[in-house]
């Protein structure tokens, strides 16, 4: 029986990180793309970063790309939303930070739920798999033709996490999915043929213990495919990208999740 995982207000919450991205914008395969280059500019180990619903301009996303570039990867962050990402203002003003959400009363929670439904629902329909996956596949196929490119990885967060899993069906050489959403079990996991690493928070409102167990059971049957699932204590959906840098435990979890992805790609894009 397939189990579906959806979305909630956690997808639309979190903290905007300080810092100035150091990459550049360029059009790649007809798509506006943020590029973070490693020292020496080698494209041998390339990563396609598939964003959450807030898109390629979010500073958190670009700073993450810069971090992977410093670790030796050539990182592309394409605008697969085609200029239609949810606005940053929605993250900062409509959905409060996670700690504040915990203090909300019933009425405020209901208002937030209504806002999520009215904002996120239509967006997800417009950017459904039938519309999005062909663009991602075409972008990856284009990178295969770029001189100097050897292996390609997919790194996805939240909404993009599912597309990283789908890319592990064979389009890329390895994938990392950080707190993916909107996936089905076993449907999205059975076809995986490439090494995949998954990071989840144990307080993720979208992926409960039952769903985590179903993922683990499905991947355990794939003895010929390298895989790992790491569970982060006291972390919610979105923690690896939009956690609170001022909170020591959250910052540690973000750093460890980033290192998880870097280590995985270093091994399987080598």
TrEMBL record:
Residues 31-269 form the Dienelactone hydrolase domain. InterPro entries: AB_hydrolase_fold, Dienelactn_hydro. GO terms for molecular function: hydrolase activity. Pfam families: DLH. It comes from the Eukaryota. PANTHER family: DIENELACTONE HYDROLASE (PTHR17630), PROTEIN AIM2 (PTHR17630:SF44). This is Dienelactone hydrolase domain-containing protein. It comes from Gomphillus americanus.
């Amino acid at each position: 029986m397939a189990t579906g995982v959806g979305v909630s207000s956690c997808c639309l919450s979190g903290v905007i990180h300080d810092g100035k991205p150091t990459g550049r914008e360029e059009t790649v395969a007809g798509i506006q793309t943020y590029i973070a280059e490693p020292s020496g500019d080698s494209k041998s180990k390339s990563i396609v970063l598939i964003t959450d619903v807030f898109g390629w301009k979010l500073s958190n996303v670009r700073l993450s790309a810069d971090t992977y570039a410093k670790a030796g990867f050539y990182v592309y962050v394409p605008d697969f939303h085609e200029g239609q990402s949810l606005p940053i203002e929605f993250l900062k003003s409509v959905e409060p930070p996670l700690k504040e959400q915990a203090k909300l009363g019933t009425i405020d929670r209901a208002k937030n739920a209504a806002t999520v439904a009215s904002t996120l629902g239509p967006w997800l329909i417009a950017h459904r798999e039938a519309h999005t996956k062909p663009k991602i596949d075409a972008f990856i196929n284009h990178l295969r033709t770029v001189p100097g490119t050897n292996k390609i990885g997919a790194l996805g967060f939240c909404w993009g996490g599912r597309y990283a899993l789908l890319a592990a069906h064979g389009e890329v050489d390895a994938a990392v999915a950080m707190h993916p959403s909107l996936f089905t079990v076993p449907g999205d996991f059975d076809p995986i043929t490439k090494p995949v690493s998954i990071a989840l928070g144990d307080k993720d409102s979208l992926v409960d213990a039952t769903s985590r167990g179903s993922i683990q059971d499905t991947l355990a049957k794939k003895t010929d495919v390298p895989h790992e699932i790491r569970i982060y204590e006291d972390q919610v959906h979105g923690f690896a990208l939009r956690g609170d840098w001022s909170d020591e435990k959250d910052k540690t979890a973000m750093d460890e999740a980033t290192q998880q992805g870097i280590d995985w790609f270093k091994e399987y894009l080598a």
